[in-house]
Description:
The protein is mainly alpha-helical. The chain has one domain. Helices cover 80% and strands 0% of the residues. The chain contains 7 helices and no strands. The chain has helices spanning 6-37, 46-76, 81-117, 133-157, 159-184, 190-203, 207-230. The chain is globular and about 65 Å long. The model has no long low-confidence stretch (mean pLDDT 76).
Amino acid sequence: MLKTGIPFFSLSFCFVLGFGLFGTVFFEVIMRVSESHAENPETFEMAFLMSLIAFMGVAFLFAMLYVQRNFETAVGMSRTRRSFFAGSLLCAFTAAVCGCAALYLSALTEQLRLKHWWNAYPCESNYFASLTPTLLALFLFAFTILAQFIGVLFLRFGKAAFWVIWVLWMVGAFTIPRAISDLENERHTVMSHIVLTLREIISWLPAFAWLLISTGFLCVIALISYRMLLRQRVS
């Protein structure tokens, strides 16, 4: 399965890196405009954010282009569902490594660019510094499990699962950044209060405890995905 997935792995790497390049160009245009108009311009990690969005989008591509297309062919050729599950997890992990490598490369080049080209202006974000090895490992694990789970949902429920996940994705993409912006600018909105409440809840437990909770939750998702795949029929 790894050999057949090489084009997808290359696509994952190029997709994430391409979004990072787009973020770089977009950042340079914005900064050159704001530099001449804003009183106190600030830099921000646009390439990292664009690459991160693309990295999460690769999970949808994996679910649609890999799991959904290969399941019936593999099982129809007498491959067991257990074997397909293990193989697809390995492929999802490989795609995650390729995407994460592109994300890290995009973020690293952005830090060098900010340091040498825009060092006169403060940076309003610090995402790259928070990208610890533990967090990267959690990203890889979460991507592997969730990409597989989304693929199984597509197999089981078809277009209904696609549209539900798409709506949830779009709602999150529009509301979460707005809520964070409202919170930073001290605007009292419903979403800013929700984010503040979640932040307080998260602060109650240490980071290690949340790491264990996240790992346990992903293991439960993997078990659900496995059970659903064992019961999936071949048309």
